[in-house]
Queue: 2 jobs
Job 1
Amino acid sequence: MPAGDVRQKWRKDMSKIMELRSKRNTLWEQTKAFLEQHRGENGLVEAGAVETYNKMAADVQALGAEIERLEQQAAVDAALSAPTSKPVTNAPGAKNTPPTNPTATDEYKGAFWDMIRNKGDQLAVRNALSVGEDTEGGYTVPDEFERRLIQALEENNIFRQMATVIKTNSGTRKIPIANDTMEAQWIDEGEEIPETDTRFSQTTLSAYKLGTMIKISNELLHDSAFDLASYIATRFGVAMGNAEERAFFTGDGDKKPLGILDETGGAQLGVTTASQTAITFDEIFDLYYSLKSPYRRNAVFVCNETILLQLMKLKDKNDAYIWKPSLDIAKPDTILGRPIRTSSFMPTVAKGEKVLLFGDMKNYWVADRQNRTFRRLNELYARTDQVGFMTTQRVDGRLILPESVKVLKMAGTKATTSGTTGGTTGGNG
């Protein structure tokens, strides 16, 4: 797309986002006013008005989700429209330094897409791809396409947006963690400065295998006008992003990442509610201050969308709603001045469930083992004139500092037969 068209589309997208933000803010003010109009002398909302309020609040929330999707889409569009090559800056006649990574070369990229579309001399293609072949017959994706896959993952996975993502070439990564806090001491002039014996423990990040299958018809594969790279990146992002996010929240560490809600290695308990079905302002306030001050500076709230509907109704001691919608594109909605994010993979309200996180999510580390691979499966779907592609990646995740994230837990004992998450399908608000 020409640069002028890109700029025009970006301005159009930003205008739409601002329009929706203004619409949401107006609707939220109307929703609050409706609630106050139907509140009785005893302070309770009239029974007949509750359903209408919930619908109005849900519309506000839906607008927020649409705004966030448009913002993510605009960011991805901008990234994908960026130049894919750098201008020549060396002196005339000077030789260009070849890439040190063999999967970053134009030759490898061309051979990879020839393999995907089954074009050219396949023996020559396989020879060119041999530098990126893994032990299972798959091929490492070219570096440029690797970046597109990561962008697609981030679009479908809010956890990656909040966490610290690192790259590793090995199967495991050991991370040293200080067990105690160093403290300086007051000393007399000329007195020897005492040593501080800081002890370290180690947390290990592994590389668990995650895979999915993508089917593409032969017609699309041979259609040169079809944006194959974007299609694969989108399908990959949805399938892998949902699986990742579920594990980052609720994973048990068995052949998958250890989730932030895990009982032993996850977030620390901040507050247990008095009710099994409702959350009060005092409990949100207690959760806020259960987190140490240094972590609160970068802390965010994370919950299921159904929990957000409850939080939108809460008021502080000054009778003001604690949820504040944002009109600024660059700023998220807030509760008690801190951003709030939603995920369908956080639990809904139920006895004993951990339904609300508050903390510095940068202390959850996601380790990506380089690189992602594709394997073409010619015969598996041949009867339907389709070609299968098996996609794999290796990833792990763990909360490095459990004290940096606190969790609000509903009263009661969690039922062993219930599911661990509130959502069974993808999609984040």
Job 2
Amino acid sequence: MTLSSTPLKQQLPLSRVVWAMLLLLGLAGQLAWAVENQYFNTFMYDNITPDPRAVSWMVAITAVVSTVATILMGTLSDRTRTRWGRRRPYLFIGYIVWGILTAVFPLAAKFHPIAVGVFIAILFDSIMSFFAATASDGAFSAYVTDITTEANRGRVVGSLEIMKWVAFLIIYGGAGFIIQAVGYYWFFYIIGGIAALIGLVCVPFLREEPLTDKPQGTYWGQIANTFQLSSLRQNRDFFKVMIALTLFMVGINVFFPYLMIYLQHYIQLSIVNSSILVAISILVGGIGLAYPIGLLVDRWGRRPVALVAVGLEAVGLLVFSLSRSMVMLTIGGILWLAPFAAWTIATTTWSRDLYPEDKRGQFAGYYVLFNVAFTMIPGPLLGGWLASTYGIATVLDGKPGFIPTPILFQVAAVLVLLAVIPLLTIRMPKTK
């Protein structure tokens, strides 16, 4: 692996302003994603229908939308030539619309009967996911890759990973208190407003040199060429990492959409205590370790960190599944959150190392294809089937449904271990 051929002016140390804008944009995006990934699901379960299959289908459909959007819009950003740059136009518009659509999601509960409410919720989530994927995955991810090198990419990704865990801390740790104080609707209004405002204010401060060269080939030709046999061979290490990522994240997505539902309805924790448990786990397992892990990824290499993370993740999930007390659940939460953070930093950095320089937006789309579509379709559907087959039958506000049980975490532990197989087929040279 050679050092990136990114233009020298973009390899200079990142300014404090750029650092600050990257962190704020990372935080805003992760706040909105965290709400979408967990509290859209919880809102659906509590306010529209307690049938976990509705959550499964919403997650699966929006995963497809996110993937398609990232590939199409990421490729478009690669080929965009404006005086504002390639990525910034998509960041600016995407963040603003993303925030607005997050705010309006709970209006789906106003529609009746239940089937209509479910349809509207999925529709709102799908439109939001299109703009969110365009901004976050298609543009922001590519922009970060543009301005970093293999020598510093791990610590930048690690720093942005901290923002993800800060967002998780705010949403998972504070959501219970916010929802209890102001209700679901204002909770969504606040988070959506923050995301839109940060996009509006921060994107203009990002530096991006306009490109004047003409893109090679055609738009659709660029997409199609990636899947030719010669291109697959040329990028085989990237796709091996993607296969490992898919196997790992299928396991995570078996249980993750149902995490708060499990804590509140199976363990019978209050929404506040659920938030406290998750907050402590995030503080210790996510925020506290993200930057040091990023340094280790740069120093020791991507593969060693990823391999260790797989084994520890399986152990953590098994411990969590067997835990019932607040203390043991917190310990279990730390034990699976910490390796999850390590896995994310290692594989995200590794995949960005392998993006072709002129196709970074497009390959960010393929990252989403393997990380989202290939995982958030089978994972939640499997989790929904496990919840409805082995779960506890319940009636919530007169609506029949099922309560998820520990089997979701046990199945997930087995699935994440499969990620080791493709990783061991890759020769990982030392970074320079």
